[in-house]
Amino acid sequence: MFGLQRQTEPASSHQHQQVLSQDLSQYEDEVVLRFNWTEPEHGQIFKSAAERLVLDLWNLYEPEMADVRIHKQRIRDLLKLLPKQMRDKRRWDFNIPDVQWAVVNSLPISSRHEQEFFDDYRPLRDIYAWMSKMEKKHELLKVENLGLTSEGNELKALRVGSGKTKVVVAGGVQAREWLTVSSTLYAVNCLLNEDPQLLRKHVTVYFVPIVNPDGYEYTWTTDRLWKKNRQATGVALCSGIDINQSLNFDDGEDISQCSENYGGRTPHEALEARHMAHLMNRTSSKTLINFESYSQRIVMPKNYKKDLTKQIRQTTGRDYQMSASDGTSWAVKLPDIERNGFLAHKKYIKEMGEEAHKILQVILSSL
């Protein structure tokens, strides 16, 4: 159907059908390249080259590597902009050799048989319905509306717990990071069932599982790899603001509206960033934990003095790289399953959801 040969889980036409009707030809002959470097300045050189060609950078902020989505015919153009050391074939390879196939393999499947909620990825309407259902089921949970997006979608949060320490947990900041949405929701479910005392006596957690509802819906209808929100930028063909960049606005960074990393011209220009900042202020939350894909790294605030490396390893069974940054936010970057980047298969939803829960247990207990 798509001119692709690989298939890890064949879907019977009698039992299953694709629930999306995107134009998958937009990903034809695209690949994701992974570049590694040893010189610190090479990271900025690579970023500048990718921005110049208006490429889609993945994993932009890792210190010694980055992935970039690119059409095969443009690889030579990118290499021409890089120094000789970075062009060396030992410094780069094909992380995803067939983006079109990876997209197809990540799409949800609709079954005629009843599925559990976490058996597959879910559209926005189903997620909001699940949140309402959970509110009726658990006394410790309350759904809150944080405001509207530029396309009129509600930005919703789950207030979970009644403890003194206030924490905000975010997922789905980048629209294409479906695994962070499901992992955040799964963690809510686990905390309610397994850690009620932590929620009653120690913390109140405001979960925002889909910070980017407009972009998330767009990944279901039009472009599975869309990153930004859908807000107008003043350039007709370049809509969308990177919400993460808008939350961490850098006045000294001049980026084109067409860039995947465009964060707006003023702080919190993205409506979703504005709503999140208001939530932090209204609740006096000092901690924001943002679940992201992908790299198996945890970035914590510089002023946080505890070393959680051993606890995270003992709890998850994985070695997460730990680093620090300015500000009060945490970034929990989940593992790259099967080197599929943002396109993790649905079979990892529960595994990564449990991973998110375990990491949250460690962080929340330490606050």
Identify the overall geometry: globular
- In the sheet with the most strands, the strands line up as 7-8-10-9-11-14-12-13
CATH class descriptor of the largest domain: Alpha Beta
The overall number of domains is: 2
Give the uncertain stretches in residue-range form: 1-18
Mean pLDDT, rounded to whole units? Answer: 90
Give the CATH topology of the largest domain: Aminopeptidase
Supply the CATH architecture of the largest domain: 3-Layer(aba) Sandwich
Radius of gyration, in Å, reads 20 Å
Helix/strand order? EEHEEHHEHEHEEEHHEHHHEEHEEH
Largest sheet: 8 strands, mixed
For CATH, the homologous superfamily of the largest domain is named as Zn peptidases
Strand content: 15-25%
What structural class is derived from the secondary structure elements?
A: alpha/beta
Helical content stands at: 25-40%
Total of DSSP H or I helical runs spanning 4+ residues: 12
**Separation of termini?**
51 Å
The counted number of beta strands is 14
